[in-house]
Each structure stands twice: as structure tokens, then as C-alpha cells.
Amino acid sequence: MSYKRSSKAAALALMLACAMLLAASCGYSIRQNPAISEVRIGKIRNMSFEPGLQDIFILSLERELTRQGIRVDRQAGYVLEGTINNIQIKGTAEDEDVTVQYEVTITGTFYLVAPGGKRKELRGRDNFIVSFNARGDLQRVMSSKEGALRRALDNLAADVASDVASARGVAEELRPEGPEGSEELRPEGPE
Description:
Layout: H1 2-24, E1 38-46, H2 53-67, E2 71-72, E3 79-95, E4 98-113, E5 119-122, E6 128-133, H3 138-165, H4 170-174
Parallel strand pairs: 1-2, 1-3
Antiparallel strand pairs: 3-4, 4-5, 4-6
């Protein structure tokens, strides 16, 4: 009898361990608070030939930062600034000598600037490629192009926001030299 009880207990423990392992691998994770709790969005320049991309990007960036648990505040000590360097739209597929699929590639350079003026380059300088189909009338093609540009900017904003949120070493790296410098990293305002 004792053998059956111990084997049942072992089987139960094994099933419990498997259930815990399965639950742990379902994509849930314990999320830490970001190292930088608030940031101000500074100057975002658009060096591409597509007008207004910086405005769309700023909205995407605000949304992504909030999703990452970072508050966007005009009084924040840390400033996020950068440049949308280039947008390329090139045809990738043709049908009877008419381009029917395009690819949008976007690049940018972004920095996190500490209150003391030190700068840290963030991700976001990679190419973000989004494809769209171009069949139908011109209005449908232009609408598809705008949607692809928005998705590419959303991807860029998500990458930059993720880098700010996971920047565990950034606060320390941007800290001015010396013990008196640690006070400068606190955002100004009421505590």
C-alpha cells in the first residue's frame, strides 16, 4: 500500500511540475518597472521626403511608451529626441509590367538625453520593412501606402520605446561623474 501511495504522490508531483512548466512557458512574464519612469519627447526631425511623418511617429511613440509603463511628461528630466532619416518605397512584385507590391523601408536615429546633457543612442536605427499590395485604383494604392507607412512608424516607435523601457544600465550610464551628479538625474518638479 505504501508503494502505491508514494507512486501516486510522485505522479501527482510530476503532473503539478509539468503544469507549472507549461504555465510558465505561455508567454507570461514578471514585468519590472522601467528604469526611467518618465520621459519628455523632444525634437523629432523628419529628413525624409514624406511630409508629416514626425507627427505620426510622435503619436505612435507616446502610445508605445505608455504601453511600456513610461509616462510622457513635458516636465520630465530625460528627453527622447531623434531623426527619421529615410523612407524608401520600392516595388517588389510586378504583374504584366505593373508594380503590384511595394516595400516600405524606414530608418531613424534616436537618443535618450539625461538632464546633465549626456546622450545615449537607442535602437531604432535598424531598417523596418513593411510590404503592401498595390492593386486597384489610385485611391486604394495611396491608402495602402499610408497604412504601410503607419505600420513601419509603429514598428520603429515600438523598438525605441522598448529600448527605453529595458534600459537598465542607461540611467547609470548617463549619470554625470561624481557623487554630486546623482541629484541631477532626478526630474524637476514636485516630489
